[in-house]
Specification:
Chain A has 323 residues and is an alpha/beta fold. Chain A contains ten helices and 13 strands. In chain A, the strands form three sheets. In chain A, strands 5-6-7-3-8-9 form a six-stranded mixed sheet, with helices on both faces. Chain A has a four-stranded antiparallel sheet with strand order 11-12-10-13, covered by helices on one side. In chain A, strands 2-1-4 form a three-stranded antiparallel sheet, covered by helices on one side. In chain A, α2 packs parallel to α4. Chain A is elongated and about 75 Å long. Chain B is mostly helical. Chain B has a four-stranded mixed sheet with strand order 2-1-5-6, sandwiched between helices. A two-stranded antiparallel sheet of chain B has the order 3-4. The chains are: A alpha/beta (323), B mainly alpha (506).
């Protein structure tokens, strides 16, 4: 079960894929490829074309143009036994027992009936659902049902797993369980592609992210690369004049942030300094000391993925984050 | 195809677990059993002996009524003694004397008692004693205080509480309810209506009092026995020979109903022929009920998967074609199991019931075994199911909720009502225009041809409609496949018919 998957350069290659629904371009000339054995976040606001892309990858729908190569095959159905899929909208057969649902989907992925049953019980036990194994799925809470469905989609130990919004509707504890499942798979050399709206999950889990908006690919690369797409910033709080800092070669621009005064403290302004990509924030700190600027605080945090998302996606992102 | 069978297996296993499935499996045979058994029970136990009071002031008619009712009872005794003999006479015994064919001979030859004496040495050792059937009607002694000489109005005044069930009468030491009173006035002779003096206003005659309006048997027997007697007297008073008249009344010309389609020498229309004419209708009904039930099951099933979005996981593992075939095979097998069990139950009940030769159940069984009813039923069930299932799968795939689907289902139901409505007409004219036209409409072919199966329909109808049915089933399956493939992932408004037609070209 732990055998490493066939070492392929890329479990997924998408080349120039476009999908039209009538006149509507749901996916517009998207190309990307995933390296094997890593976790990929598939990000983008609602309606970005993520689910459509996923459906095309799985050959549930066919692209209008372009080609998709999954695990070295032109058709996902040829390698369906090696792919796992958790759809965005979750549902289970209400009257079926938990183990039976997992085993059924596993048999559809090529496992023998006996092996599928054994695997179902194994997974349910491992992820804390042992007591529910013989209960019908309608007896489960939403979160538990989602976990069962997740287990059903990976019961055949696929090489390549696609998860559409695996975290939605889960409480923090179960979100953690879901993260563990994903990490477990990556550890064993499986490739995971998951879509999400929650940037923290992507930030914690992903090696790489793929960002889409309005049907187009906006970014494709590592998380570090993503963060580099927005300038590095240093935030300082001081009551002194900071005009001298403008003269530094490391500083690109300075803007005053909305003052967040602590009661009782004398007026102190908050400043955000945009610095050059290769600049060392420590040099700013040294410059402050040298110029006699007394700092109340100095903050050199990296941008969050959330900020990256907001910046790259622009006004579309606002809509998405309020959902 | 492997995946289609995996889907089919789940459909079968899951549906076979539902309460509805088992209810359907058990309910129909239970209904069959009771509908064959209840009339027998009712006959044996259901109708209790009815007690009646008889006051004949004229003194001339009571004996007539009593002898008629006695004859009625003896007829029942005769029939049950026949059954008793058929059941308990040792098969190896040489005793071959059947009970007399007419009740008169039976009574004159000593009745049950003398026949049983002949029978006794030839009975199986295990045979129980013969229990004569209960009397249907038994005369009750009049309660005290009823003056049989008073006029009818006074008399009934005294009897009324008994007839209303407020008081009971005693018969053979048992308190029983009086169900009827027959009062014959003294001057009945003068009240007789004769055609020649029609202008006479009908005078008060015999009064039959009973709160039970539904069971008219006693009243009919009483009325008919009195009138027979009155007429006999009338013949006598007019100087006619009553015996001669009776002989005349029993004169008849032999009349036989024959069927030219049967082989020479066996053309007589028997009970079997009547069964043959109507048995197909029963199968049409069975066909209709089973196809309709299964198709409903299919619709709920597909909508569940669609509204649950399970479909998407399924489609990442199987192609829409495999999914559709899987459902068709799985649910079809569920239906087949159900119908198969019904037919087995039918055979079981008939075999168990079929006793003496000439028994209806035995004849029905014989018709089922000897005819092509069952094989044809299987063929028409198969194609009928696949055709309607294809229609339903296509419909189910484009609807998102059961409610949405129900409104379309209404139309399909109406279309499906036609064979049910014509079901009783077609056996009357099985090769007529209506039957032939309906046979050539593929969606009605299974039902109509099933209905005509025993009527030797023209060869061209049998083969032609079957071919057309096969072709149209294939086409509808193909079209359903096209619609299913696109419809199954669709959300939102169901598509317009025109749009669906466009899908067919994709």
């Amino acid at each position: 079960m732990n055998g490493s998957p066939t070492s392929l350069a890329s479990p997924l290659e998408v080349r120039g894929v476009t999908k039209l629904f009538g006149d509507f371009r749901a996916v517009d000339d998207v190309s990307f490829s995933l390296p094997a054995g890593s976790i990929h976040g598939f990000l983008g606001p609602n309606g970005a074309g993520k689910t459509t892309t996923i459906r095309m990858i799985l050959e549930i729908i066919k692209p209008t143009s372009g080609s998709i190569n999954v695990l070295g095959h032109a058709s996902a159905l040829e390698v369906r036994q090696r792919i796992g899929y958790l759809p965005e909208e979750k549902g289970l057969y209400k009257k079926m027992k938990c183990w039976a649902v997992i085993a059924y989907f596993a048999t559809l992925k090529g496992l023998s009936r006996k092996a599928a049953k054994q695997r179902a019980f194994e997974l349910l036990e491992r992820y804390g659902l042992k007591d529910f194994a013989t209960k019908p799925t309608e007896a489960l809470s939403k979160g538990m049902g989602q976990k069962v469905q997740m287990l059903a989609s990976i019961a055949h130990d696929p090489e390549f797993v696609i998860l559409d919004e695996p975290f939605s509707g889960l409480d923090p504890v179960n979100q953690q369980v879901m993260e563990d499942i994903i990490r477990d798979m990556a550890k064993r050399g499986r490739t995971v592609l998951f879509s999400t709206h929650v940037m923290q999950h992507a930030e914690r889990l992903c090696d790489r992210i793929l960002l889409m908006a309005k049907g187009r690919k906006i970014f494709d690369g590592t998380v570090v690369e993503a963060k580099r797409t927005i300038p590095r910033r240093v935030r300082i709080e001081t009551g002194n004049d900071i005009a001298r800092l403008r003269e530094l070669s490391e500083v690109v621009s300075i803007r005053e942030l909305e003052a967040t005064n602590v009661a009782g403290s004398p007026t102190a302004a908050h400043w955000e300094l945009e610095i050059r990509e290769n600049a060392d924030p420590q040099s700013i700190l040294q410059a402050c000391f040298a110029s006699g600027i007394r700092l109340r605080s100095f903050n050199q945090s990296d941008p969050t993925l959330h900020e990256v998302f907001m910046r790259l996606v622009g006004p579309d992102a606002k809509e998405a984050t309020f959902r | 195809m492997k995946y289609a069978f995996l889907v089919a297996w789940r459909e079968y296993a899951e549906n076979a677990k539902t309460r509805g499935f088992w209810l359907g499996m058990i309910l129909v045979p239970t209904i069959m059993f009771f509908s064959s058994q209840v009339p027998i029970w009712l006959e044996k136990k259901g109708t209790p002996t009815r007690y009646y009071a008889l006051v004949d002031q004229s003194g001339t008619l009571a004996s007539v009524i009593e002898s008629r009712l006695e004859k009625l009872h003896q007829r029942q005794v005769l029939s049950s003694i026949g059954e008793y003999a058929a059941k308990y006479v040792e098969p190896s015994s040489t005793f071959k004397t059947p009970p007399p064919s007419s009740v008169e001979t039976f009574m004159s030859s000593g009745g049950a008692k003398s026949y049983l004496e002949q029978l006794r040495p030839n009975l199986k050792p295990s045979a129980p004693a013969f229990k004569p059937p209960r009397r249907a009607f038994q005369v009750a002694t009049l309660p005290e205080g009823v003056n049989t000489n008073a006029d009818l109005a006074t008399m009934i005044g005294g009897l009324r509480p008994y007839l209303r069930g407020e008081k009971s009468v005693q018969v053979d030491g048992q308190w029983v309810a009086l169900s009827a009173a027959i009062l014959i006035p003294r001057d009945i002779e003068s009240s007789i209506v004769r055609p020649q003096n029609k202008s006479d206003r009908p005078k008060a005659g015999i009064e039959y009092w009973s709160g039970n309006l539904a069971d008219t048997k006693l009243r009919d027997e009483v009325e008919s026995s009195i009138n027979t007697e009155i007429r006999r007297r009338e013949y006598l008073s007019r100087g006619m020979d009553a015996a001669a008249i009776r002989e005349v009344e029993q004169t008849f010309a032999p009349f036989a109903s024959l069927n030219p389609k049967k082989e020479a020498g066996r053309e007589a229309v028997s009970k079997t022929d009547i069964i043959k004419q109507w048995a197909p209708s029963a199968f049409v009904y069975l066909l209709w009920v089973s196809i309709f039930a299964i198709v409903q099951m299919l619709l709920t099933n597909i909508i569940e998967e669609k509204s649950n979005r399970i479909i998407e996981v399924l489609l990442s593992s199987v192609t829409p074609g495999e999914l559709m075939m899987g459902k068709l095979i799985g649910i079809g097998a569920v239906g087949l199991t159900m119908v198969g069990s019904w037919i087995c139950a039918l055979f079981g009940i008939l075999t168990w019931k079929a006793g003496a030769a000439g028994d209806v159940t035995g004849q029905v069984l014989e018709v089922l075994k000897s005819s092509n009813l069952i094989p044809m039923f299987s063929v028409y069930f198969l194609f009928g199911f696949v055709m309607y299932a294809a229609l339903i799968l296509a419909l189910g795939s484009v609807c998102n909720t059961l409610k949405e689907a129900q409104s379309y289902m209404g139309v399909i139901t109406m279309v499906m009502m036609v064979p049910l409505m014509t079901m009783t007409f077609i056996p009357k004219d099985p090769n007529g225009l209506l039957a032939r036209v309906l046979s050539w409409i593929p969606i009605y072919t299974p039902f109509t041809m099933m209905n005509r199966v025993m009527a030797d329909p023209p060869w061209v109808d049998v083969v032609g409609t079957l071919l057309l049915l096969i072709v149209s089933t294939t086409i509808s399956l193909w079209m359903a496949g096209k619609v299913f493939r696109i419809g199954i992932l669709r959300t939102g408004q169901p598509p317009k018919l025109l749009e669906m037609l466009r899908w067919l070209r994709r």
